Amino acid sequence: MAAVAQAPPPDAQNAAPAVAAAAADPNAKKDAPAPAPAAGEKKLSGAELKARAKAEKAARRATKVVAQQASAAAAEAKGGKSKQKQDGPHVVGGKGKPAASGGAAPVAPAKKVKGPTVPECFSHLAMAKRVTLSQADRDVHPAVLLLGQQMSAFVVRESTRRLEATLLALKKVIESYTTPAGSTLSRHITSHVLNPQIEYLTESRPMCFSMGNAIRWLKLRISEIDMDISDEDAKKRLCEGIDAFVREKITMADGVIVESAAEEIQDGDVVVTYASNPLVKRALLRAHRYGKKYRVVVVDDVHDRSGTDMAKALRAAGLDVTYCPDIAGSLTMMRHSTKTIVAAEAVFSNGAVYARAGTCDLAQAAADANSEMIVLCESINFTERMATDSLTYNEIDPELGTDAGFRLLFDTTTPAHVSTILSEHGGIRPHMVPGILKRMEFL
């Protein structure tokens, strides 16, 4: 019996017309049916049709690559740049509007914000940054979105004010929360609701120590909620707990500290303070209302000049105020000072004080002048961490930085230069800080 000759597989020349047709019609469907065999051509099997389709697809892909390379070469020859793929919607004219589907609208290149150059050895230091609303997680609450923008722009600056604003924003998150079916509030809200809010705030600006303490306290309260109570009762208890926390740890604590600081001031004192802080301002005004006669020297921070507002407010209240534009110019005044009162962002467990950059220099000048160094700080800002320098924990100023260097927002004053730390627990020496930490229930 004579053998039946098989039709040879299509070669490159037979595949060329198909490739050209595919290139001419880019909208052709990939799964289009195979064309009917020509007269006298044997019908191919399924495996052979699959092999031919695979070969045609590879040929089309190679043709497309060659065309892209030729287009890029032509663009470079004209001095232009090849078009690159971008993530997210295209922006037209920098207005934030999506481009038309046809792709004819020009794409405005995104402007890269140039920040300070940070050497590798300081890469562990964090820095505040503007997180656009489009980059935030879709689960972030609007109140938290607004707070993140305010913190990254340093509208909300002091640690205690940031803490209070964070707790109030999280309270709104809890009030609007609804437990999904099949879940319980205590097991769902922390990981699926609170964590996205906290991550967004941390991306906007590094979390201060008081925020970390309060968030740890809040998560502990959530884990202690009985699963048998209703969601409304659980949310009510959490919101009441947040209000009580703000009232006790911030409002009442500030009142006690202001009263204690005012009592420390005596007639004839020369009190030196640094820049502007609402807690220090309240203490100085309180002592003045008590009828005490003393002088105030306001040493300003050369980078934000907030001390000018402090000096104007104190002078308007009738105090005898001397304004110094920088620390270098205040050395003469420091020789006559009796007390130096500043506020701290945090206090480490070894008694070191974490405060606005420049506080350490002021403390050293106070020590040389035998001036008592008094630090005002709520216990919520105490941390169990330790620091002996200003580089272990710090933030980089996102605005005051150049290619030649960068500026740190805070510095660390060693316990040897601190006389008294005033908190709502009274005046303590730096070595007594661990005892306060043991009394704090959220640690």
TrEMBL record:
Keywords: Cytoplasm, Initiation factor, Protein biosynthesis. Residues 40-59 have a biased composition (Basic and acidic residues). Residues 1-26, 64-77, 97-113 have a biased composition (Low complexity). Pfam families: IF-2B (PF01008). It comes from the Eukaryota. Belongs to the eIF-2B alpha/beta/delta subunits family. This is Translation initiation factor eIF2B subunit delta.
